[in-house]
Write a structure and sequence with these properties.
alpha/beta, Aspartate Aminotransferase, domain 2, Aspartate Aminotransferase, domain 1, 7-stranded mixed β-sheet, 13 helices
Length: 380
Amino acid sequence: METRQIKIPFNKPSFAGKELLYIRQAVASGKISGDGIFSQKCCQLMENKFEAKKVMLTPSGTHALDMAALLLALGQGDEVIVPSFTFTSTVNSFVLRGAKPVFVDIRADTLNIDEKKIEEKITRKTRAVFCTHYAGVGCEMDTIMIIAHKHRLAVVEDAAQAVNATYNERFLGTIGDLAAYSFHETKNINCGEGGAIIIQNRSLGKRAEIIREKGTNRSQFFRGEVDKYTWVDIGSSYLLSEIAAAYLFAQLQKVDVITNRRKKLFNYYQKLLSPLAKRGALRFGAVPQNCTSNYHIIYALFDSSKLRDKVILGLRKKGILSVFHYLPLHTSPMGKRFGYHKGDLPITEDLSAKLLRLPMYNDLKISEVEYICKLLEKLV
């Protein structure tokens, strides 16, 4: 009798609680275009839990980064320090405004921007540092903030992967001037597409409201602060649908439950794969002692890209989707247009070619983790 092959996707979104109930309530409220009761509830929850000064929902993490670049007035002639090992949105946000990326290599332990290599890249044109908290593990933010303060630079945290993770007991996204969260379907907390901009620099809050509302003072009008609203600045439509916000609120209410569930899966993966790690067949990314992860990603680093690719193919043949991650931006066609070449950032190039992400989602079963790890043992 033929045994049915188990199929395990890389990611699978799932309900956390009252998503469908809240969506019905949002529709019944008569306002689903954005900034309704559920958008307000989401922002209040995040501001209270994460001790964020101001949170505004956006249609995606990408839009939150776009808003950050607009708020900092980045433009032609400006330079922004950023890791090459990140998603395109991190860099597109300011390249769209005319600013130039200055790529910095990553640390071999966390795969975050190497804080020791930032200062040497600063010039009179440098305006900001955009740092990405990879896999829900914080960058070395104290050092980055000291450097930024010394050179009068803004700091933007790309915390798309880092909701509910901490650095020195502070939630990621609340340390720099601005930050972006993502609630894409691949994230721990999701609503299909969605994001948030976190504003710690209070001087940027009022303008953020205007940029987010198509460049108008519409929010002030609804609060009764002006008798009519009009076009007062540049901007675009950066409001999240109230239906998505309703779904998101149900997820945010369970943020600690979700984090703990993923922690259990993460630790079980590492336990089962520890024999491979002990004999040097693979290694895991580090979580510094002053950081707590949100367990967004479970990844392994192999000795070679050839072995990594062999494992991807072998797992796929057994119905398991495992994937690589970022290709270095500095060696991409766009990166080359900015004058970068292969060999410029050796650690980024080396590790990105050896990295494998394993299935990780809220409803992943312990038995499925066991199945994946058994197959990995046979492939490595």
